[in-house]
Amino acid sequence: MDLSAIQAALRERNIDAWLFYDHHHRDPIAYRVLGLPVGLMVRDIAMQYSPNNSVFTLSLVDGGTIELLRGLGKNVVSSADLVAVFEASWTEEQIQSHFAARDSIDAITVSAFQEIGRRVRNGGTQEHEIQQWFMEAFGRENLITDDPPIVAVNANAGNPHYEPRADHPVPIREGDFVLLDVWGKKNTPSAVYYDITWMGFVGAAPTARMQEVFEVVRDARDAGVQTVIDAVAAGRRIAGWEVDRATRGHIKQKGFGEYFIHRTGHSIGTDVHSNGANMDDLEIHDERQILPNSCFSIEPGIYLPEFGVRCEVNVLVRHKSAEVTGKIQREIVTI
Question: What per-residue confidence (pLDDT) applies to 38?
């Protein structure tokens, strides 16, 4: 098949596409133009379809179309892995954009903890005010985001879907446990996201309970990271569910399993939630392979009534190695 010649001919005629279809070899022209063996019969067709709608963000083709194709004797298979190749595998330029976002966001997050401490000790501050401080810092660093960062204290941090609101001001005070979930990308074409969560305590030292829960979450995160690093180094195929099982297993073993109420992580790309493998054995059993040059979050959490803890890093997979791309929180930040 001379693909470039076919594309040139279409451009000359201002035609967008040439669709070939054959059933029972009724179109011999198609085989000659495409250079396919006459005996070839297309049977398997990949579509944006997921069996039992298990990956619902990908399962977009309507049921009627699937019925039509199956009625013509075709086998419809999921395009999940193909989509991951073209949507979740980064170019070298995108990898560099991730590192650029990392450098800015890591520095901003350090400054945010300092700003919280300064404001608490000089008249006070609120969750939403710190969120707005983040957005001003993003503007200075040429960062954009689909939603503002999450700033949550105490019980609010126990809600993984919490969002600060200007019409519901929540003060940040001495003795508060603070969660900062920050994601953004450089405002450049095809840039990809960087997405982290860190924990801090306003005061001299967190309580023993805070420290205990933080260490369980931290160690669960590290177990997930090590699972990926070991598999990639060994050249073993690894699916998203395996990473979730590693983190979740650690949290269950420590007695907090019922408080880990979301998947371990998500694919990252030009959207903060991209279309590659998610680290998920809870919401779905994600069997999609983790691909080279893909990136995803590992962010286990424990969400108690009085406070929540989440520790989030990004993992970039290369062909023979995997790495955490940014700073790794080992201890609760003293604010």
Answer: 67
- Please check the confidence at residue 259 and state whether its pLDDT lies above 90: yes
Using CA atoms, how far apart are residues 64 and 331, in angstroms rounded to an integer? 54
Higher pLDDT, 76 or 150: 150
**Terminal CA-to-CA distance of the chain, rounded, Å?**
64
Sequence-ordered alpha helix ranges (H) in 91-238? 92-120, 127-140, 208-233
The CATH architecture that domain 89-334 belongs to is Alpha-Beta Complex (3.90)
User: What share of the chain has pLDDT > 70, as a percent?
Assistant: 97
Q: Angle, nearest 10°, between helix axes 240-253 and 208-233?
A: 150
- Is the model's pTM score more than 0.85? yes
Mean per-residue pLDDT of the chain: 93
Distance CA 91, CA 97 (A): 10
CA separation for the pair 226, 222 (Å, rounded): 6
Residue spans of the domains in the chain: they are 3-86, 89-334
